Amino acid sequence: xxxxxxxxxxxxxxxxxxxxxxxxxxxxxxxxxxxxxxxxxxxxxxxxxxxxxxxxxxxxxxxxxxxxxxxxxxxxxxxxxxxxxxxxxxxxxxxxxxxxxxxxxxxxxxxxxxxxxxxxxxxxxxxxxxxxxxxxxxxxxxxxxxxxxxxxxxxxxxxxxxxxxxxxxxxxxxxxxxxxxxxxxxxxxxxxxxxxxxxxxxxxxxxxxxxxxxxxxxxxxxxxxxxxxxxxxxxxxxxxxxxxxxxxxxxxxxxxxxxxxxxxxxxxxxxxxxxxxxxxxxxxxxxxxxxxxxxxxxxxxxxxxxxxxxxxxxxxxxxxxxxxxxxxxxxxxxxxxxxxxxxxxxxxxxxxxxxxxxxxxxxxxxxxxxxxxxxxxxxxxxxxx
Length: 385
Prior knowledge:
The chain has 2 domains: 6-250, no CATH class; 257-383, no CATH class. 33% of the residues are buried. Strand 4 and strand 5 (97-101) form a beta hairpin. The strands form 2 sheets. The chain has a 5-stranded parallel sheet with strand order 6-3-2-1-8. The two termini are 35 Å apart. Helix 13 (282-289) packs antiparallel against helix 18. It is of the alpha/beta class. It is globular and about 65 Å long. It is built from 18 helices and 8 strands. It has helices at residues 21-30, 34-45, 57-66, 68-76, 118-127, 138-144, 151-167, 170-177, 208-228, 247-250, 255-266, 271-276, 282-289, 292-304, 309-320, 331-347, 360-367, 372-383, and strands at residues 6-9, 48-53, 80-86, 88-92, 97-101, 146-150, 194-196, 232-234.
């Protein structure tokens, strides 16, 4: 029984903040191509990529960069899905500490997209694009690919876990104790103020409240990983040293680092860059990813290439030594297969099997089965077209 591999792409989460949505969109794009390349390559490494969101601004980015048809391909193939956190988290003054919050919802005041009903948030993200998508089924596809949860339902547990992380860390406890006695009443906020963690692109003071909110967001990502039963995840938390407080749960070599090493060792093409340059399509990439060879590659990669560069190189070397099944067949059997297929094509010209196609390559494709190294060959072929 095949086990589905899932990945939480937290680096593709445009965390809600009070900034103008267009500024959030542009700031994400200004980081360059790396998040997109990781997303595309992870389609090869995992059966499903889960993208966290609150207001579906990530959907706008995907359509704006990859194109509507490509996003529809990713959704219909179930290669990507969304995990929507309805609401947001903030640190409240006057002893409130970490709490969930919503904006709007009063008389004649609609809810902000990050806490609006799912269909309204999806429509807001799609209608905000300068080139409106033409596929009428797109909102439905997004909704069907989305799992939603209320942040208010998990806020207290995440708050407790964050405070525990700080209290159990000698480094953080010492730092916080210099100016504070109560984690719900940290220095740096007035009674009527609110502080949020707005993601990597927001402005941070770097004080204790920012540390609390950054850790809170990390704990939220871990909770999301549990909810979706993802095998791996990547974080985009800008205060990376804080993750030392959670090393037991987060310190693991990332899949994109392992795949980068494998590409260097095996001379594999940069598939992510090829897609972004429109040299190949998402559809062709998905065709290879969903093939038997692709499945075999994922199983092999996750079982053998996640420890260090040495183990990756060793396993790749071992892989090269494997012999296709067809090469183990006696030549008389291969000749028999070729003869039979040629005879079949002659007797059944409408069958679509021409004698000119029945060569050693055809027989090998027929008999060899699937293997991780054949997947690598497939990658090289589509980038050399």
